[in-house]
Amino acid sequence: MPRVRARAGRRCGRLAAAAALCVSVLSGCNQTKWGDYDFDTGPATNSDELFSLDRLPRFDLRLDASSWAALEAEPKQWVPGSFEYDGVVYDNIGIRLKGNHSFRSLDEKAAFKIKFNEYIPGNRFLGLEGLTLNNMVVDPSMLREWISYRVFRELGVPAPRVGYAQVFVNDQEYGLYLNIEPYDDEFLARVYDDPSGNLYESENSTDLDQDVENWDQDEGADKSRDDLRAFSELAVEDGAAVFYGDQALVDMPRFLAFLAGEAIVGHFDGHMGGHNFFIYHEPSQDLWTYLPWGLDQALVRHVSPFAHGGYLGYKCVHEPACLVDYVEASQQALTELAAIDMSEEVRRAIALTDAAMRSDPRRPHSLASVESGREDSLAYINNRAAELGPQLDCLVDGEQPDADDDGYGPCFQDCDESDPAINPDAEELCDGVDNDCTGYPDDVPACECPSLESGGRTFYLCWNSITWLQARDFCEDQGHVLARFDSAAQMAEVWAAAAEISGGRWSIGLNDRDVEAEYRWLDGSTPSFSAWASGEPSHQLDWFDCVFLSGGAWFERNCIEKGSFVCSDPG
Question: Where is the composition biased (Acidic residues) (predicted)?
Fold first, then answer.
């Protein structure tokens, strides 16, 4: 059972972030005013209060030497520790680290999962089995996840409640964290009429067209995976039976809202990209719903509403009936998005967390980066309806027109409705025409990119925009390599030619993917010169491993970032 630990002065100073910028104190210890906002300094008495913008709780985690060493050796295995909130200590709880590209060790700003019933069956904190504490190291705004989950919930998508917290570990301040409601039994009981079903996670690009054993099963007593197997088998059949009719297995209103939500927040790292999502089977309905996850890279890319790469999303937008339903659901979602006063809610979130953000000793982002990130995240979501609205205005009398009868219309941005040979699935013919409507003519490896000679080597300037990893493969498919430069003068000559085509960033073959901070060309050789831009390389952010050329200088970025690219002859 939890035990109470007396801490003089802790209760009245509970809202640490707001207290540092306090303008006036109202009603004794119960309320703090920050600018135009009132915040409650008392402890949360239920989970709704915990996951709100009314208070900033302080969580104290404690790990003894053996648990600390165990997490250093196996960071994603549960170890025993304690959790304290408002002087109440929960002993013998489970603690582990979390994250993939956001993973940090205990010596850095680690992200945590807390499980109150890991060692004590039935143990709960404010009715919760656990907590997820995200470190927000990928998100300089510290707002992306909060905004994105807020959008999903507004659309009626099963999504977690989200708040913020200050986290201390062994009495050391670890900083400001996002406090996310986990997907677990308590979540399922709160959201679904029937919470007895199975919950599966796609973490490593697992989808319905792959072996069902590749999914992680997070909840559910039935371990046979028969339900998932039946869902997968119907999903991969030709036609729309998985969506409509007597056999249908998809909760369509929630699924369409989920797809619309991913497009609105630009969640390229989620189901849109074929991973980072959950699915739940509600037995009494025999229907499946999709749940979002991993939103720290949302609100950045301006993705097309039809760019769904996840298996079922792709199938939906390529089935005529489902496409129409999706477009109409997306239009409705934009209306619902407009009902949120996002500027006001973001201002409140900033007011609540600003002092804690500034005092965060492990925050990897500068104050200037956080402030500009806040502006960018808010501008993204506030402008999204105006951006997506015209793209979704593609139906006539409830159907997608198709003037050239090629099966593609304006919803898929058929770039030439007068020519049935030109559509998003057409073959690129290397004829100077954008046959497949990507926005770039001749953008497949079979088509040679413009070239130039410099320093005895040939370089190929491919101006279509793809990720660094895709550019590497594209060059290899052409019999080339992602470019290596032998001298600064050679690189400057190539950059001058590239800049005439596009002044943006260009992928080159330099990277430190094998050993952090050891930059090598793809052939394993080290560069004979340096051309880093000011403040580069960014190797302290260890998911930044690939180098782009921009303005004649090197910039280190995530390997899934997009740009034009330079290939060169091997050797």
Answer: 204-219
